[in-house]
Amino acid sequence: MLELKNVFVTYDPNTIFMSNALVDISLVIKKNESVGIVGRIGSGKSTLIQLFNGLIKPDNGIVLLDNDDINSKQVDIRKVRKKVGIVFQYPEEQFFAETIFAEVAFGPKNMGMRETELKNAVFSALKDMGFSSEKIAQRSPFSLSGGEKRRVAIASIIAMNPDILVLDEPMAGMDFNGKEKLIKYIKNEIKNGRTLVFVTHNMEELLEIADRVIALDDGKKVFDGRVRDFFSDEKLIEKIGIDIPSVVRMRNRLKKHYSDIPFCRTPIEIASYLKKRNRL
């Protein structure tokens, strides 16, 4: 379990450039949750996820992982980063290895994996990201398309088998096929007990993957709850500059005529409801 208690983060303190990146943030992320973090640019989303494995420290407040303060001297930060794996936006810009295998192997190797275990972890992670041929592991990561690079970057984190997987705009730059593979992987991992936290501007992705939404505005948490409740709060959505997905718009229009229509995540669910209703 990951918990933040009354966390504040301030950039450039005691200068004329001082700004509050995060203000009094408290939240709990439990095992097997799928949590989407949303908000306009500059709302504090990327700062928030950097707190999760100690990449930055709060100016006030504490960050707990399994009830341990991750920023205390008694906690091994390497173990924290093994449990909480983060893939940042445009991670491919940080590639450095000559081969895809070496790129994906770097993290787990530093965590202590050796030989057979390391090889199995690398190829399993690449397969999860849709790279079925082992030959591709010997290619340069710089020879890949943008979407393929993103999937390799994600593979480099899941090869370490983190308990909590944190993704910043994971599907940016991916084609339809790449997105489908990643969504399939994410849904399967959630079923198997993995915890997922992801930052996104794409509300269709949020609707399809998330069970819970955390919304930030100007460094403050302004919503924390179910996806259906988030999309029902039209005033909040307008305030933080979020586009309502077409499926939700359609469902909301239908609700004016059919008060019993449930929350629907896909057009198929809407069609199924209408089909059943017409049979009555």
Overview of this protein structure:
- This protein has 280 residues and is an alpha/beta fold.
- The strands form 2 sheets. Strands 6-7-8-3-9-10 form a 6-stranded mixed sheet, with helices on both faces. A 4-stranded antiparallel sheet has the order 2-1-4-5, with helices on one face.
- The protein is globular.
- Strand 9 and strand 10 (220-226) form a beta hairpin.
- The longest helix is centred in the middle third of the chain and has 16 residues, at 176-191.
- The chain is 39% helix and 22% strand.
- The chain starts with a strand and ends with a helix.
- Helix 3 (100-110) crosses helix 4 (115-128), helix 3 (100-110) runs parallel beside helix 5 (146-158) and helix 4 crosses helix 5 (146-158).
